[in-house]
Amino acid sequence: MSNYHIKNLEEYYQVYRKSVRFPEVFWEEIAEEHFQWYKRWDKVLEWDFTKPEVKWFQGAKLNITENCLDRHLRIRGDKTAILFEPNNPDEPSQHITYKQLHARVNKMANVLKSEGIQKGDRVCIYLPMIPELAFAILACARIGAIHSVVFAGFSSTALATRINDCDCKLVITSDGSYRGSKTIDLKGIVDEALEKCPNVSSVLVVNRIDSKIEMKEGRDKWLQPLLDEAFDECTPEVMDAEDPLFILYTSGSTGKPKGMVHTTAGYMVYTAYTFKNIFQYREQDIYWCTADIGWITGHSYIVYGPLANGATSVMFEGVPSYPDFGRFWEIVDKHKVTQFYTAPTAIRALAKEGVEHIEKFDLSSLKVLGTVGEPINEEAWHWYDDNIGKKKSPIVDTWWQTETGGVMISPIPFATPTKPTYATLPFPGIQPALMDENGSEIHGNQVDGRLCIKFPWPSMARTIWGNHERYRDTYFSAFQNKYFTGDGALRDEVGYYRITGRVDDVIIVSGHNLGTAPIEDAINEHPAVAESAIVGYPHDIKGNALYGYVTLKETGEYRNQDNLRKEINQLITEMIGPIAKLDKIQFTAGLPKTRSGKIMRRILRKIASGETTNLGDTSTLLNPEVVQEIMDNVLK
Ligand code: 7RM
What we know:
An 8-stranded mixed β-sheet has the order 12-11-8-6-7-14-15-24, with helices on both faces. Strands 5-4-17-16-18-19-20 form a 7-stranded mixed β-sheet, sandwiched between helices. It has a 5-stranded antiparallel β-sheet with strand order 22-21-23-25-26, with no helix packed on it. A hairpin with a 2-residue loop joins β27 and β28 (512-515). The chain starts with 8 loop residues before the first helix and ends with a helix. α4 packs across α5 (131-143) and α4 crosses α8. It has 2 domains: 2-489, ANL, N-terminal domain (Rossmann fold, 3-Layer(aba) Sandwich), CATH 3.40.50; 510-632, ANL, C-terminal domain (GMP Synthetase, Chain A, domain 3, 2-Layer Sandwich), CATH 3.30.300. By secondary structure, the protein is an alpha/beta fold. It binds 5'-O-(acetylsulfamoyl)adenosine. 5'-O-(acetylsulfamoyl)adenosine is lined by residues 250, 295-297, 372-375, 397-402, 423, 485-487, 499, 502, 508, 513.
């Protein structure tokens, strides 16, 4: 009996029940049947959410790249592993076979070794969506180095913070990147960041755009000549199940970004198993996830999950709007994509452009459509279903997080009947709970509450790099003995979940998590600014947009200062990146506060969303007069 590929709803419930009653047996069977281990585990699971401590497959020895590469060579060595589609449609696609991928990863692993990188060292990867990004990730995993990929849209300050937080020794980057009709000077950003990173001793540079860049003597090297010289075999490092595989930063509602630490065996087992089921993956499929590998979606469902299954994973360098809004559909048609996985913000942006961009292309290869990153609204869901899936491809609305490593709540195509805006049912092994504000679990259906998970799953993050206490405080202190997701959810009459959104100060803009605190910190750096508060408000395409309320040190004529608006956004771009720029900035005489001095964001959120009458309970307000002033001058 193989419980690897779930085929219908009855089987789902059967597998799910088993995964809850006998979690260790359940995961052990999957781990045993589908992966290669140098040594078997001594114990499947050990856990204690009060510490918190979670260990899966303790005692096992493995290398994840052996599972993603070597074991495929004999049976599918000439099959395409990575199908690279460049930004420029006139540049040829690259079909990188498992054999070629293996050789290129091994070469890169040997280069890293010759640069002095050893097991446990941290390597920062700051690259655009080019094949070298996948090679670099796997090369680190090959030698047991811990990769920390930083999305190449982050600014030099954000990059420096991340490099220093986990003390990376080496950075892999490129001269620049293509983004639609523009190029971006990535190496320049790295140079600026490294002025603040004394411990980075070497930088390996991929030549992507053939630009003239400065190479710092003794620190910077072009990667290609080193690869040309390197041997194409590198014995995989033997890793413990719980050895860290990677660090990936995610924004918190306060403080600096959190370096989520994922470990080897559990992450591999869970991402591979979810990939296969959620996309109903079959050997001949061409799978495409449009995310950037700089986010968890790309780590788990462009690189590790698909490759562990021997799949063909499309990697797209460009943007949905270049050369025009038909690009995604052109690629689906060109490569006969069978599974397509994207974000609601992309769907909404494409829906706005009209169907003529779709009609030119044959989308009949598609079997499964996926969405991830934020709640999908009903209109976008139907547009996707009607125009892309032609009502015959199930939509998997997959809910999960950087912290969870893999998809947690999602339909299983052809098994779970879908329902617009619902992520539907927990994946086998996942035990959700809805909690009320007093910390009690809410049982039964047709209820809503805060979404927690009450039992460990293999791919959960094990800690925050260098700050286990923050890990405990953030995720395991709000509700006793449970992992708190930070999201709110409701459960309908049949037990389907609908994620309603964040209940903390994280705002999801175009699918990117942004903490309000770091943006406010950036604004407050401006010499003219006294105080600021950021809230989200609904936006047609981005899901949420950012509204900033800013008070100035010098009052007087403060309301219309477009230069100041530009300067503030410039500061945010420098400190975080363009994704965090504010859509609207209102200068105000003051911010509404409670008697204890807390900014009442709830009120600001309502005003930014266009609410003018029902502001809820304002009885604890210290300064009601500012609310009227803010409402009178709200930006439409
Ligand atoms: C994979 C990813 C995590 C946050 C999460 C939610 C939101 C993600 C959905 C969703 C509703 C979904 N990781 N979120 N997927 N909300 N429906 N299908 O996005 O760490 O970047 O973000 O994203 O709020 O907590 S993430």
